[in-house]
Amino acid sequence: MSPTVGLYGFTGTVGSAILPALVKVHQEGKIKLVILHRESTDLSKLPKDAKLETRVVDLSDAGKEKNKAAVKDLNVVVSTVGAPGLKSQIYIVEALAGSSALKTFIPSDYGANWTEEELKAPGLAGIGVKEEVVKKAKELGVPLTEVRTGLFGLFFFAYKAVGTDVKGNTVQKFRNSLKNPLRLTTLPYLGYAIATLASDESGYSKIANQVLQVYDVTVPGQEIVDTLTKLNGNAPEITEYSEQQYQEDLKGPGAVVAALKAKWGDGAWGPSGSLIEGWKPKSFEELAREAL
Ligand SMILES: NC(=O)c1ccc[n+]([C@@H]2O[C@H](COP(=O)([O-])OP(=O)(O)OC[C@H]3O[C@@H](n4cnc5c(N)ncnc54)[C@H](OP(=O)(O)O)[C@@H]3O)[C@@H](O)[C@H]2O)c1
């Protein structure tokens, strides 16, 4: 029998990228996909032809019994909840505690490898919530797989999060970012990676209680400059992100992006990882062309 995999948060940015990849392996018979959702979640975005089972969860004190029943046969649970709901994952962890079916829980992380020092920045306090969920899972003996990523390609190209604008032909540099690689994770790769891991029963013991590094593109700043020069026919304007602005940004809502710029500039991404088998990553140039 194929493993049963639960997905919570399918309507979000990450969840909607992971959903089609999980639906694909569900339709191939490699997993049985179960959608976990809030009472209020809009289910109209689920593909009708996939005939997915849906189960309501209630991530509050009132939902404890309902949640336990909803997850009791799940072998893998993937959460992609967004920031306001991160803490409520503790209810998922509590529901999973003692489950004899569970092989691993993948909490909503999909972020960088932060050090304790970095997490002291006031603006990064929200990330501490992810650590609380992990701590609770460890306390309750719930096996979990933490998925660390680079900056999402969507944020780099479409949202210009770290100051590169492919069309506008500008690149922002910070510290040694021209020399050091930026780590990017494209959302299709993240979906592929999660679906591949979730459908490989024989690999569950290798991913439980592990931290995985999931990214498919690394590109030094100079290569970004050279690519933009090639695509636009003239060299991009290079602006400098100042130390002063960095310190200022660390205090507020721009802290995650500021801290990612520092990781890039300092070459401090933490442990590296290898591509999940079968994925053919696009080159930076291909991705940049798509953004033109
Ligand atoms: N590496 C990167 O560049 C990067 C970028 C962005 C995000 N991330 C990380 O990716 C993860 C997912 O983020 P996202 O941007 O995909 O999130 P998002 O788009 O905000 O996703 C929201 C999802 O969470 C669900 N949800 C459940 N409880 C909620 C609550 N109490 N409040 C709000 N939403 C709730 C929503 O369900 P309903 O449909 O029921 O509302 C929805 O499915 C986060 O851990 C985030 O830190 C990483």
UniProtKB/TrEMBL annotation:
Q: Which residues form the signal peptide?
A: none
> Which UniProt key words apply to this protein?
NADP, Oxidoreductase
Q: Where is the NmrA-like domain?
A: 4-158
GO MF terms, alphabetically ordered: oxidoreductase activity
Superkingdom as given in the UniProt entry? Eukaryota
* InterPro entries assigned to the protein according to its UniProt record, in alphabetical order: NAD(P)-bd_dom_sf (IPR036291), NmrA-like (IPR008030), NmrA/Isoflavone_reductase-like (IPR051609)
Pfam families with a match to the protein in the record = NmrA (PF05368)
Coiled-coil-forming residues are none
Known PANTHER family for this protein?
NMRA-LIKE DOMAIN-CONTAINING PROTEIN-RELATED, NMRA-LIKE FAMILY PROTEIN
* Identification of the protein by name: NmrA-like domain-containing protein
What is the protein's species of origin?
Answer: Kwoniella shandongensis
Upper taxonomic classification of the species?
A: Eukaryota, Fungi, Dikarya, Basidiomycota, Agaricomycotina
